[in-house]
């Protein structure tokens, strides 16, 4: 199944494209993949297999309402990905409360979909689309008293044991952890994922972290799998494990509701201290204390990707930032053979997963390369070892120490 999560993702994305199973939106690489169901081209996608109506002869899998957990659920949370339109439609047609996460959590956690009075089947179909979610929804905040009975998530890969791999950005894991923290889900709240049969793979349990969401049911075009997964799901926001999640200063700046939740948990007496991903910030020496002061003044070491003109490098951390100056030695790692379709967010996700996050990232996508800067040579060598040969966007990375090292002080 591959030696890393990224290997597994790449294999799934490549197979879906090469086999002709990939469906709009294309390319599927970097996404929760949408796919065609062969032998029933008129059905198009798996979403039509999820309608709350009697199963059609030859239909590819059971509809979710045939699951007892769907039938008894009153409030259902379904991710906004395209392949899950059918699940959203099923919830609306069954007159259940449908909650859809705000994409990338930019403006809150949930949107509750509210179809117009007397909505026809066609209108409900529209409400289940991404545009419908925007047009027919109201925000649900931390005080919304959500009580989710069923969670439906997309996956890139999943195992019959319930181990799940998403597209690498961690939002499904984050959303579930936030729901736990706000009391919206319980330990026994079932989690369902919908994938093609080729996405069901053997996944080594050691690839999973405490923050990874597992699933209880898998729906494919040919079967319904009950995983009987015993691995605990995330128990809430793990503020102290920034190296294995998206939680860092950047995320706090981008996700207002996460910042509010952190404040509430702090007031409740919980430890919400962020253990920053950069090793130097975990030190107790004088230099580390100075760095922390700089971080407080400049809380976004990885700014959102911008539109760097032409072949100019996109600097994820300002090279003139004082925290890179002084007596520290900066060791630079060269990452080459980046495919043109690769996004900087995908590289950052891989760095987080492999726990080799640099203090600065210089993105030169037009030249198919990037430069990673580390405070010590040990961290740089770990990055080279972890990234060498890693497949991203269908290309094996070329990784080595840069020829010129920056020595300051």
From TrEMBL:
Organism: Hypocryptadius cinnamomeus
InterPro entries: FTHF_cligase (IPR002698), FTHF_cligase-like_sf (IPR024185), MTHFSD_RRM (IPR034359), NagB/RpiA_transferase-like (IPR037171), Nucleotide-bd_a/b_plait_sf (IPR012677), RBD_domain_sf (IPR035979), RRM_dom (IPR000504)
Keywords: RNA-binding
Cellular component GO terms, alphabetical: cytoplasm
Lineage of producing organism: Eukaryota, Metazoa, Chordata, Craniata, Vertebrata
Cited Pfam families: 5-FTHF_cyc-lig (PF01812)
GO molecular function: RNA binding
Descriptive protein name: Methenyltetrahydrofolate synthase domain-containing protein
Keyword Glycosyltransferase found: no
Domain (RRM) ranges: 331-404
Region span, Disordered: 299-326
Keyword RNA-binding: yes
């Amino acid at each position: 199944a591959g030696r890393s999560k990224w290997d597994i993702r790449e294999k799934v994305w490549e197979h879906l494209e090469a086999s002709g199973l990939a469906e709009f939106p294309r390319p599927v690489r970097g996404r929760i993949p949408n796919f065609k169901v062969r032998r029933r081209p008129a059905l198009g996608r798996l979403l039509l297999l999820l309608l709350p109506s009697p199963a059609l002869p030859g239909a590819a899998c059971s509809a979710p309402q045939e699951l007892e957990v769907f039938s008894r659920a009153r409030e259902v949370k379904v991710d906004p990905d395209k392949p899950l339109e059918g699940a959203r439609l099923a919830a609306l047609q069954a007159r259940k409360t449908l909650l859809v996460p705000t994409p990338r959590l930019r403006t809150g956690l949930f949107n509750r979909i509210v179809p117009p009075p007397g909505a026809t089947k066609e209108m409900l179909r529209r409400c289940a689309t991404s545009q419908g979610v925007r047009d027919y929804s109201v925000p649900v905040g931390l005080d919304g008293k959500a009580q989710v009975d069923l969670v439906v998530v997309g996956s890139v890969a999943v195992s019959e044991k319930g181990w799940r791999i998403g597209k690498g950005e961690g939002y499904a894991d984050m959303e579930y952890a936030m729901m736990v923290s706000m009391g919206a889900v319980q330990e026994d709240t079932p989690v369902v994922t919908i994938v093609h049969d080729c996405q069901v793979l053997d996944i080594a349990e050691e690839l999973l972290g405490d923050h990874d969401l597992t699933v209880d049911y898998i729906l494919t075009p040919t079967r319904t799998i009950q995983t009987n997964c015993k691995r605990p799901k995330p128990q809430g926001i793990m503020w102290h494990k920034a190296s294995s999640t998206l939680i860092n200063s950047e995320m706090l700046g981008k996700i207002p509701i996460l910042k509010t939740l952190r404040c509430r948990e702090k007031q409740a007496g919980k430890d919400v201290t962020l253990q920053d991903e950069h090793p130097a910030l975990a030190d107790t020496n004088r230099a580390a204390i100075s760095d922390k002061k700089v971080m407080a003044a400049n809380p976004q070491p990885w700014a959102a990707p911008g539109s760097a003109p032409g072949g100019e490098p996109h600097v994820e951390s300002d090279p003139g930032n004082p925290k890179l100056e002084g007596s520290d030695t900066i060791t630079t790692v060269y990452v080459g053979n980046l495919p043109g379709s690769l996004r900087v967010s995908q590289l950052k996700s891989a760095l987080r997963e492999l726990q080799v996050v640099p203090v600065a990232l210089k993105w030169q996508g037009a030249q198919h390369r990037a430069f990673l800067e580390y405070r010590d040579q040990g961290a740089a060598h770990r990055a080279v070892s972890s990234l060498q040969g890693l497949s991203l966007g269908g290309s094996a990375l070329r990784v080595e120490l840069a020829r010129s090292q920056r020595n300051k002080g």
